[in-house]
Amino acid sequence: MFPEHEAAEKWFAGRGRTTGFPCARGASFSVLVLALACVCLPAAHAQQETPEEKGLRIAREASARNDGFGDFTAGMTMVLRDRQGRESVRQMRFKVLEVPGDGDKSLFVFDRPRHVQGTALLTHSHINTPDDQWLYLPALKRVKRINASRRSGAFMGSEFSYEDMSSPEVEEYTYKYLRDEPCGELTCTVTEQVPLDDKSGYSRKIIWQDKSELRTWKMELYDRKDSHLKTLTLANYRQYLDRYWRAGQQTMVNHLTGASTVLKWTDFRFRTNLDDSEFTQPALRRVR
């Protein structure tokens, strides 16, 4: 971990829950993938922007910095902890295919433990229409569509929702710049995002991004009653192809239940020539 990244993590840890962050595409995946990515381009400085205009500009810039990656694969370990600290661990594979002019396509495949082996989540993110998601359950040998009203539900018992596992698009939110503030040795821009989808499980998100690279370090998620429901923190960023930033760890804490989920990412590989046929409903039944 770079020294300034470690300092930022310590700063966020010290702030606790009193403050109130996929970079776009690839964080969270909404959150996940989501918030995972960024690249270096010169910042545009508009004069006399409103907070809303500045927030939108930052979001567009963060999204543009991730354009052109083509595809990537990664391994992932999911660690689930309940309020008492008891753990369960799952191993997964992850693939993403960039779709010019539309949202990305992504695929999660569970490898371990045995009782979830072969379970797969396919997501087609979209810019101007609701995302499509399908879950393949090998025990039932069927593909189940995730309805929009269920996207706020927990993904495989984790603190990440199905909504969190899709790639967020700029057009899906309204934005508002709130402030700049120190975060360890970095300076972070704090913005508010409000989902336009009335079926979203969130009323708003507060996001911390460092000003130099627009990497997301923290995201506070508020439920439909505007209560602080969860906090996502990201750490261990690495740069790939001298351009694309990906976080090596994401931690989602549920403040209502005391449970948490940690995603540990490994073995990122870019431009592996993934084919669109790998991201279809029929292909889910052939996942190995």
Biggest beta sheet summary: 13 strands, antiparallel
Give the DSSP E fraction (strand runs of 2 or more residues): 35-45%
H/E order of the elements?
Answer: HHEEEEEEEEEEEEEH
Strand order of the largest sheet: 6-5-4-3-2-1-13-12-11-10-9-8-7
Please give the CATH architecture. Answer: Clam
Tally the beta strands: 13
CATH homology-level superfamily: Lipoprotein localisation LolA/LolB/LppX
Short description:
Helix content is 11%, strand content 40%. By secondary structure, the protein is mainly beta.
Your description of this structure?
This protein is mainly β and 288 residues long. It has one domain: outer membrane lipoprotein receptor (LolB), chain A (Clam). Helix content is 11%, strand content 40%. It is built from 3 helices and 13 strands; from the N terminus they run ααβββββββββββββα. It has helices spanning 3-15, 51-64, 281-284; strands spanning 71-81, 87-97, 105-112, 120-124, 132-137, 142-145, 173-183, 186-195, 204-210, 216-222, 228-240, 244-254, 260-270. It has a 13-stranded antiparallel β-sheet with strand order 6-5-4-3-2-1-13-12-11-10-9-8-7. The protein starts with a helix and ends with a helix. Residues 1-10, 13-28 and 37-44 have low confidence and may be disordered.
